[in-house]
Amino acid sequence: MTPEHWVMIAKKIHEQYNMYDGFVVAQGTDTMAYTASALSFALGNLGKPVIFTGSLIPLREAGSDARNNLVYACMTATLDIAEVCIVLSHTILRGNRAKKHHESFVAAFHSPNFPVLGELGRPIVLNNWRVHRHEGNLTLNASFESNIAVVKLFPGFNPEYINLLLNSGVRAIVIEGFGPGNVPFLNQSVIPGIEIAVSHNIPVIITSQMEQGKTNLQAYQAGLKALNAGAISAKDMTIEATITKTMWALPMSQNSGKSVELLIKTNVAGELSV
Fold first, then answer.
1. CATH of domain 148-265
2. pLDDT digits (tens, 9 = 90+) for 75-97
3. Which position among 5, 30, 65, 186 has the lowest Cβ density within 10 Å, counted as fewest Cβ atoms?
4. In CATH terms, is domain 3-140 a member of 3.40.50.1170?
5. pLDDT tens-digit profile of 171-213?
6. How far is 31 from 218, CA to CA, in rounded Å?
7. CB under 8 Å to 33, separation ≥6 — which residues?
8. For residue range 145-178, what is the model confidence (pLDDT) as tens digits?
């Protein structure tokens, strides 16, 4: 799956939005969290459910979870939900909060920083923090800039790599920091690279390598240095949501007149806690 596929799916839903009460999208699970996150940003004022599902076991194999997942996804598409969701097994997850965390267990996704939206049991239980169905026109903003880089820090990381990325013409950099977003600032400091990027209008977004919790650049000096250099905190967004939102915010900032930083900090579709 590539951003071109995200655009195709978003446009198809936009074209047929008034013809159906809900939508189900079946795709492979490996990149599903990226697609669901991207669609949550591309489909503005969404008033109906858009449900992603797939399977861990191919349909042709005995014991496949594909049929049940498709049935559960179609059931969810009829419910009082107006969000992009992921449904595997019996759980309804907000798409831009979900992560694939297991490869051999049919409940392959979880939501580390946000409660589940519902449980497909007997009876079906929907939780109050979901967005309810509503009227209004769907807005389509399905443009994504894929020329970004994701850097995962590790002990001994060479900060010269950031300069190489800047020289390559990259449009934004996402840095996976330590703990709540800490970065090296004494030996092998990445701070000069962040300062150079920001001075050239290349946003630097810092997220955490931890699944649970949130990026807090004010917790320690190692994060505050990055914040003062102009880095943007991803707060409690998943890495999938952070990447797709950055890809979406770059073209959106030109269309809306809002800065990339403001869009990243704004809760667009429930992807971050405010």
1. 3.40.50.40
2. 999 999 999 999 998 999 999 99
3. 186
4. yes
5. 999 999 999 999 999 989 999 999 999 999 999 999 999 999 8
6. 32
7. 86, 95, 98, 99, 100, 109, 238, 240
8. 999 999 999 999 999 999 999 999 999 999 999 9
